[in-house]
Automatic annotation (TrEMBL):
Binds 1 zinc ion per subunit. The gene is tadA. The active site is at residue 56. The lineage of its organism: Bacteria, Pseudomonadati, Pseudomonadota, Alphaproteobacteria, Rhodobacterales. PROSITE patterns: CYT_DCMP_DEAMINASES_1, CYT_DCMP_DEAMINASES_2. InterPro entries: APOBEC/CMP_deaminase_Zn-bd (IPR016192), CMP_dCMP_dom (IPR002125), Cytidine_deaminase-like (IPR016193), tRNA_aden_deaminase (IPR028883). The keyword Kinase does not apply. This is tRNA-specific adenosine deaminase.
Amino acid sequence: MTRKPTHMDRALAQARAAAERGEVPVGAVIVARDGAVVAEAGNRTRELNDPTAHAEVLAIRAACDALGQERLVDHDLYVTLEPCPMCAGAISFARIRRLYYGASDPKSGGVAQGARVYAHPQCHHVPEVYDGLAAADSEDLLKTFFASKRGEA
Ligand SMILES: [Zn+2]
């Protein structure tokens, strides 16, 4: 029996597409209150020569552009990996309602570890956070990607 693809499945598809472009495989999807996908993106730091071109930032920019507004109130963001501090900040600035993420990121994560952006009183908007969604799939993608990179060296 096939199950209906979830928003995290779409984020994983974006992560896979990123890996095929030689980018770190992370994907993000932004969903409106009615469940419609407003934007989706994968990492493009290499392609754009832009260290800020993380999947979450690109998806937020695309969603705001599509909606003609600077905030994404009542929107949810799905991302395959725990956001870094920069993206956690951008998610807060965008007023994202819920953040769903897959694998935790002990090296660069900024939500549950490291900077813990949302734990600071300076953070004016804290999204509801749900972690561990399809975490194993996301981890496998990252492991395969970095193993193949090491193979190239
Ligand atoms: Zn990031």
